[in-house]
Every structure is written in structure tokens, then in C-alpha cells.
Amino acid sequence: MSRPFIAGNEDVSTVVCAPIYRGHLGLSTEVAVGPADGLPTDCSIRCDFLALMFKSKLSGFVADLTRARMAELDEALSKALGIERH
């Protein structure tokens, strides 16, 4: 996931990524995704394991999340980072 400005800006060489793992642990800091989201299998975005990566190492576009799923991701990221949402 990325904002278009970050994805398309050559001056930005790194991005923060939330890894996707197969399976689902039921944590409040993860979001279950799968074929309905354009991914090949059921898996989870785990916001507890954020990592800084070089954009050049990312292989390509995988999926585009709906607004509802992005809201779930926002909530999971807020919990993982300890940010209160109003």
C-alpha cells in the first residue's frame, strides 16, 4: 500500500512496509485479507512487524484494498503504534 506521491516519487528511496503472512492469528494489530482483496490466498497484514525497505526491492503491485479494508488497516496500525484515534 502506498500513496501515489510516495510510490511515484524517485526522490523517495525507502518506504515503511507491513508484511503479509499466510494465516491469521486473530490479533488486533493484523488485518485478514485474501482472494476477495486480490491476493492469491488467505493471509494477514501484520502491523506489529513494520519494516523500512528500499522501494527498488519491491517486486511490483500485488493488490488494491477497498476503503473498508483500508479503514481496518488504519485501525490495526493505530493499535500497533499506540496512536489514539478519535
Q: What are the defining features of this structure?
A:
86 residues; alpha+beta; SH3 type barrels; two-stranded antiparallel ribbon; 23% helix; 22% strand
Care to describe what's here?
This protein has one domain (4-81): Roll (SH3 type barrels). The protein is 23% helix and 22% strand. The protein contains two helices and five strands. The strands form two sheets. Strands 2-4-3 form a three-stranded antiparallel β-sheet, with helices on one face. A two-stranded antiparallel sheet has the order 1-5. The longest helix has 15 residues, at 67-81. The chain is globular and about 35 Å long. The two termini are 23 Å apart. 10% of the residues are buried. The model has no long low-confidence stretch (mean pLDDT 87).
What would a concise description of this structure say?
The protein has 86 residues and is an alpha+beta fold.
Stretches where pLDDT is under 50 for at least 5 consecutive residues are none
Class inferred from helices and paired strands = alpha+beta
Strand content: 15-25%
CATH architectural grouping: Roll
Number of helices: 2
Largest sheet: 3 strands, antiparallel
What is the straight-line distance between the termini? 23 Å
Question: Briefly, what CATH class?
Answer: Mainly Beta
CATH-assigned fold name: SH3 type barrels
Helix share, percent: 10-25%
Q: Strands across the major sheet, in which order? A: 2-4-3
The counted number of beta strands is 5
Shape: globular
Break the fold down into its secondary structure elements and pairings.
Blueprint: H1 4-8, E1 14-17, E2 20-22, E3 30-33, E4 43-46, E5 51-54, H2 67-81
Antiparallel strand pairs: 1-5, 2-4, 3-4
